[in-house]
Design a protein that fits this description.
It is built from 16 helices and no strands. By secondary structure, the protein is mainly α.
Length: 327
């Protein structure tokens, strides 16, 4: 499915507008068209699907199951589910909202949000072919552990208090729908589920569409105008500070894991240390401008800063570990 967005961007950029594919502007514009259309379509599909499921399943049973179990088990489930779902950081947001609406503890939902963009089956296969089985297993393990540790920390600081009114609004709407169902003591019809999902889609999409444009626009400019040579010149020395610097540089350069791995391969072949490259890669796929623009609508600034700092620390630590074991 995703290759259709690339074809659309090819048609708009290079056939209709006849931009030069090798130019900085051509690369940036192509990236912008491809990623905005992809994110919008995925958002619409995911928000609607999650809302239909919310209206169709017994959320209380799922929530009670996770809450009654040992909380560590919940973090493991959240991180593992994130690892097996092939979503980028932006398309993980609707599921994050869905879990929040279901009143599943925010630490468990955060375990999913952290792990989902970092690990997917395509990325794991590509990484294994690039760096070998040992690094592939270690990367997957560290990715899941990052989700577990991050989720536990978010619960520790009681982050529910830092969610925004958007979450409260959608949760209230969900509760009203559930109350109606209990009152009528019947299962919602397809038309009722569709109406609920449509209203939820409109509510969320109206709040985040412009932030997608802004975030992807910034990422597109940097994607087209920041060459690999710049990264190599500034991060290729292997010093300790190059790893956190790689994380900071990777944040604006939004991509998915499968898309950034060929770039990572090129950087490694040109001499960038493995750990520094992986820190850059994880930052690019899991801490992008579009993601922060979107989750800003569901997290207050304090929680957003905490989340950003947590990712910076985790990805930097991963980079240092890989640099140590790769020598």
């Amino acid at each position: 499915m995703l290759h259709y967005f690339t074809k659309l961007a090819d048609i708009v950029s290079f056939q209709w507008l006849q931009l030069d594919p090798a130019s900085h502007f051509g690369k940036s514009f192509h990236f912008f068209i491809e990623d905005t259309t992809k994110i919008y379509v995925l958002l619409i599909i995911m928000i609607y699907t999650v809302a239909v499921l919310r209206a169709s399943m017994n959320i209380d049973r799922v929530r009670n199951y996770l809450v009654d179990k040992n909380r560590l088990f919940g973090y493991i489930i959240g991180a593992t589910f994130g690892a097996v779902t092939p979503f980028c950081s932006c398309s993980s947001i609707p599921l994050f909202l869905g879990f929040t609406q279901a009143k599943i503890p925010i630490g468990i939902t955060m375990s999913f949000l952290i792990t989902s963009p970092i690990i997917n089956e395509v990325a794991i296969v590509l990484l294994g072919s690039l760096l070998g089985i040992k690094f592939m297993i270690l990367y997957a393990t560290i990715g899941i552990l990052s989700g577990i540790v991050g989720g536990a920390f978010i619960d520790f600081i009681k982050a529910e208090q830092y969610l925004t009114p958007l979450v409260e609004t959608v949760v209230k709407a969900s509760n009203d729908a559930e109350a109606t169902e209990e009152t009528e003591n019947k299962k919602l019809s397809f038309a009722e589920r569709h109406e609920f999902a449509k209203n939820e889609l409109i509510t969320i999409f109206k709040r985040i569409w412009k932030w997608v444009l802004i975030g992807v626009g910034l990422g597109a400019v940097l994607h087209g105008y920041v060459p690999e040579e710049y990264i190599l010149e500034n991060l290729g020395a292997g010093k300790w500070w190059t790893v956190p610097m790689a994380v900071l540089i990777g944040i604006p350069l939004y991509s998915n894991a499968s898309g950034v791995i060929p770039v990572a391969q090129s950087l490694i072949e040109k001499g960038l240390p493995v750990g520094t490259t992986l820190a850059f890669m994880m930052s690019t796929v899991a801490a992008s401008f579009p993601e922060f623009m979107m989750i800003k609508q569901v997290m207050q600034t304090k929680l957003l800063l905490i989340f950003f700092t947590m990712l910076l620390v985790m990805f930097t630590t991963v980079g240092w570990i890989f640099n140590l074991i790769s020598f």
